[in-house]
Amino acid sequence: QVQLVESGGGLVQAGGSLILSCAASGRIRGMGWFRQPPGKEREFVAAISWLEGYTNYADSVKGRFTISRDNAKNTAYLQMNSLKPEDTAVYYCAAAARAVPRTNSEVDYWGRGTQVTVSS
Predict the structure, then answer these.
(1) How far apart are CA 93 and CA 85, in angstroms?
(2) Which terminal CB of the chain, N or C, has fewer other CB atoms within 10 Å?
(3) Is the CB of residue 92 less than 8 Å from the CB of residue 111?
């Protein structure tokens, strides 16, 4: 069982930046971030393959968010720039043992979630 420990998040004004981090306790194939806005379904945000560093992004965050990883620390980061009020959500770190998680069904492990609130 892999544990995911998230940090970061908080309250920021529109146009601001935040960085989220997620440390994994074991071996994984890929890691990603999903978010759940108030009253909506959980949705994919970004993902990265652990060995190759290939990245994928939801259209809504392309050009504003960057996912990266530090293999030595077994940690992934989500740099969020030019934040908008519609980015307000609980952000969940997600990891998979044999895939790069881009859908809920591909996720083997979930973090507890961290709140990101963007004020207008």
Answers:
(1) 20
(2) N
(3) yes
